[in-house]
Amino acid sequence: MNLFLGIDIGGSSFKYGIGDSKRGLQHFAIKRFTEKSLEAFQLVMREILDESQQWDIQGIGIGSPGTISQPGGKILGTNPNLPFFSDISPAELVPQGVTLPIYVENDANLMTLAESTLRPGKLCIGLTVGSGIGCGIVYHDQIFHGAHGYAAELGHSIVYPAGDACNCGQQGCVEAYSSVDGIRRRLQRKNSPYAGMALPNLIALRNRIPELDIILREGEDALIRALANLCVVMDPDYLILGGGAMDLYIYDVNRMQIQIQHLLPEAHANSIKCEIASYGNRAGVMGGIILCERNHYRNETCIQKDN
Amino acid sequence: MNLFLGIDIGGSSFKYGIGDSKRGLQHFAIKRFTEKSLEAFQLVMREILDESQQWDIQGIGIGSPGTISQPGGKILGTNPNLPFFSDISPAELVPQGVTLPIYVENDANLMTLAESTLRPGKLCIGLTVGSGIGCGIVYHDQIFHGAHGYAAELGHSIVYPAGDACNCGQQGCVEAYSSVDGIRRRLQRKNSPYAGMALPNLIALRNRIPELDIILREGEDALIRALANLCVVMDPDYLILGGGAMDLYIYDVNRMQIQIQHLLPEAHANSIKCEIASYGNRAGVMGGIILCERNHYRNETCIQKDN
Fold first, then answer.
1. A113 at the B interface (CB within 8 A)?
2. How many CB pairs below 8 A link A and B?
3. Which residue among A147, A233, A236 sits closest to B147, beta carbon to beta carbon?
4. Per CATH, domain B3-106 is 3.30.420.40
5. Distance between CA A147 and CA A157 in Å, rounded?
């Protein structure tokens, strides 16, 4: 029974799972790491591979933040949460001696890929709301990378010219307003006592603390504006919201759909559906499995053709 | 010698030409119309078809403003310049008895298609600056229509929240700042004596009249912002600017490229090239010819396959 290992690298943990597209996830778990270094990463990876030996694993699909060169899967983009995690080839992610094929993709692309398999043939745009804002586009069942692998960087589209500073050096990016880090930075700038509070508490308190409610609502509104502009040029079937902060319902997907429709030309407005990621926080892992599975069977077909 | 007729329907004229992708344009001309009605349109079309009888025309490719349903080529979108020009099928555009195949596409899509054939395999985004702002996307040598045919409506992406009113009912759309109609409306709102001036004079006077220079510069800046946000999600190879107002150099394509690069993440910035449409004001006509030619040979191939 051919199975695949999907790993989703986050800012503070690895999520991983084993399965395939037909049977879904046979196993899912999370490993937190405290030390942020490539060596620590490789140790966690070794633990995961040791655990996985009881299954017939055919390959590894890894989701990472940042820009990933394709083909090849080299991690290029820098990530403020994982500063050491750049200019790394797939082989460096696993312990020496591992001979399984490894495929690396941007984590938001994998989340969108997984969700797109539940909406076959549809034009899907996926968003991950967490410490940053991730975005993926799947068109004709393929991840859209753009001409140079930089596509779908919605987090750095500018919604408020001369707005709040973003980590990227620009002003007014959606990430500066809508990501969890952006929200914290905006609270800090207002000397808010809530800037360092754990996200679940922060969200739970919004109904009682207007200051929190305003900042969270402004984050939602910035995302609405960026998504409406994206819809105007891409005309997708689905906007799919996932990521850690969406698991906590940081933004109201029903309100988002209505507000996005208000910002679109009338004829176009009703064609967009805004939904929560069906795979929840497992979407990235599932995407890694699907990426790996597709490559596995494509390569097999190619070999048969060559014969 | 198989040739194709391309027609580009503008707000005040038909541009048309005869040719194919190998030999280019064998003939090009413009017919202005004064009466704006479907009947007047059909009369001009009759004149063009009569003229074209000396060539071996295999089909007609028509570029129109507005949203065009695909497949089928029905004109759906309304155009403030041609209010009667909506809900029209291709057959209604030509006089009765014409049996040539007719293909209708959005005019900016056709301009981009033509330009993309000069940049084969590249991800091209085309912009037409005229009374409105048109946009087309060509990816893998195919026009990108989005999921419902509404894609590439860059003119209605919002660059300034709560900004100037647009014809579409929204505020702060790029079209409200960067199109010729938008520029006129902004001058009118300032009670400027230049609001009604012919565009070539208006552009020529900008060096002497700061009021004009500011409005034109703000138009360029809005387009720069919209294009930078588009690059962040689409990651194109080329941004190609055409349309009547670009023929008059309303915007400075070199400054645009530099400013767009300033608004992009550093790694991404140098990958974008901003160019003037090589076919100039003939790009739409050439796009119509290419669309028609592609369909002609595709259909022939299909028939051969069926036999």
1. no
2. 117
3. A236
4. yes
5. 18
